[in-house]
Specification:
The chain contains six helices and no strands. It has helices at 2-28, 32-48, 50-60, 62-81, 86-97, 100-108. The two termini are 16 Å apart.
Length: 109
């Protein structure tokens, strides 16, 4: 049940940026092109980290990887919310997505 809850939260977190764009685009001065870069960079990085995520899960075990992934994910989710400009938002999303595939890989192992 806990793993299912984590998957649902990660899915909501991944998709909610599209909904939240209208709220944060004004204060952060993010236009549609920068938003496109945000989402494209997010999904390219997500794809790149799929294979290393699976390899780390097999090597270190799901419990250790999930513990580190949830701590890392929580930290950078907070940093995403605390972003004051486009660059900080981009960096926080890129660091956040580095552990997102590891959370997905735990379901497989």
């Amino acid at each position: 049940m806990f793993l299912f809850l984590i998957f649902m939260i990660t899915y909501a977190d991944r998709e909610n940026i599209a909904i939240a764009f209208t709220a944060f685009s004004g204060p952060l001065n993010i236009n549609l092109v920068e938003y496109g870069v945000l989402t494209t960079a997010f999904f390219i990085t997500y794809t790149i980290f799929q294979i290393p995520g699976g390899m780390m899960s097999e090597r270190f075990g799901p419990r250790k990887i999930m513990t580190v992934a949830v701590a890392w994910w929580s930290t950078f989710t907070i940093m995403t919310g605390a972003s004051i400009d486009y660059i900080m938002m981009l960096l926080s999303r890129l660091f956040l997505v580095q552990v997102r595939p590891q959370v997905f890989q735990q379901r497989v192992i």
